Amino acid sequence: MNRLLIVDNEALIVETIVDLFDRKAIPELEVLSAYSSADALRCMHSIKIDIVLTDIRMPGMSGIELHREIIKCWPRCKVIFLTGYNDFEYIHEAIRNGSVDYLLKTEGDEAIVQAVQKAITALSEAVAAEEYITKSKQQMQLIAPRLQKELLWELVQGDSLTYDALSRSFQEVNIELEPAKPVVVMIGRVDNWNEDVRSFDKSLYLFAIQNIAKEYLSAKVQLVSFDFEKKTKVLWLIQPAEPKEALTADKVVELRQHCLVFLKGAAEMIQDACSALLKLNLSIAIGVTFQEWDHIAEHFDRLQQQLNRGLGLGQQLLLLEQTVQAASGAPSNHERRKQLKKLNLLQTVLENGQRDQFIAEYADIMKVITEGVDAMNSIKTEVYYTLVSIFLSYINRWEIQSEIGSRINLGKMTALDCQHNWKEVVDYFYHLAEVLFEHKLSGQGNQEHDVIRKVQRYVQQNLAGDLTLNRIGDVVGHNPSYLSRLYKKVTNEGLSDYIMTARLHKAKELLEENRLKIHEISISVGFLSEQSFYRFFRKALQKTPQEYRDSVVMSRNATPK
Questions:
Q1: Please, are residues 273 and 213 in contact by the beta-carbon 8 Å criterion?
Q2: pLDDT digits (tens, 9 = 90+) for 521-551
Q3: What is the model's pTM?
Q4: Where along the chain do its domains lie?
Q5: Which architecture does CATH list for 462-558?
Q6: What's the CATH class of domain 2-128?
Q7: Second label for 175, Cα 20 to 30 Å away, from 335, 363, 380, 469?
Q8: What is the pLDDT of residue 465?
């Protein structure tokens, strides 16, 4: 949505140009008006203005002076100077200040429209200008650690990417590991935070631990690390530092074996340094094999379980990954744990009303949980009560117990023994989700129609007042651009079309009543000049207002009493 502000101390000129853009109906362009530089500044201090079409010579503050204030308020705003004076001094000043165009008032309507369209194009192109790309790259460097953590966390949670996508993502967030080469996983856990250590201090300690590890490891390996689990653990993903020359397959295997041996020895030194320098006990679990990127989640889970089992049994543990072979043909326990983690996503898409994604994710989770397990086991029980928590939380938060309870037995949800088999459990929650999505969709439709009714009521009651999209948005509590799209979606007509139709209908009523003069009717339906009202009315009905009034009077006189 672009906003055009027309500024001129002559009301007739302002109204004529406003009428011009009403007739041209440029998509996503809202037209505002001001009758002095002071009016223009007040407008710009309240809302964003993208383009200003202004006279140069006005009483008080000139257009050139106004431009200086405009770029202070909205630096990207494009200014088009409009004047009746062919004054080269003003032209040169306008060019120095970076205005988009300079027009004489005698150049005609098409020149004005073209200048505004040129400004719209310039605004669009500016978004992709080189200076913004440069700034974005600088900002990316500042937030790179956070982006690295988000990407790597998704990978160790089981999300997989193609080689091209992984390579591109690593490059974007400055991860120096090779996406085509396997990695080994290492996890460290702080065993003994003192009670008086603040959250900020924990961040500093964890940063120091990562620096210590880098000091001991970087001579032999490439690594990336981040903290997780509420600032209690650190994850390292590690690759051996390979020489630039090509290695044979045997040499690659030998290099990786040496790397694993090195990691075990370096881990002891890292523990000793943390104890001596930071007064912290650090337990470490190390993977014993190098894994491709799309397989690291299982090894991460296994190391996590080993560390968690050792919690409280000792400090400064140094654990090596224990591998367990999954039963043939059945999903691994890791695969089931991965699906349990995806339950959090179910809650998010339920809240957002994303039905298709919810159904797809739900089906995937239940397929993996169900396969290979005949009896009701502990994982199924965990899934069941997690789903109960998700659905009950949603129902209670939106206070829709009675509406949903009238369509499905909610009591059955809170007692697992009420379900006869696991398929019945799966079907029950699927049906409950469908009921909730239908209820949400119905409520959304009602809310949207309520907004439309409020808009139409405001328009009908304020035909002579401020009917700019920005003002209507303030009244109904919605962003102007969103409101414009919503109105079009629900009613299949633009809001500006509705306003024009309402003005025409009201004007016809007042003309038929034959009480007010035409210039009074013009003002009462929102036209600041009688000339604009005449053009609008004639365009709509192919009659002038007076001709329409005369035809109504003649029709009444011709009707037999």
A1: no
A2: 999 998 877 888 888 899 899 999 999 999 9
A3: 0.52
A4: 2-128, 140-320, 333-444, 462-558
A5: Orthogonal Bundle (1.10)
A6: alpha beta
A7: 335
A8: 87
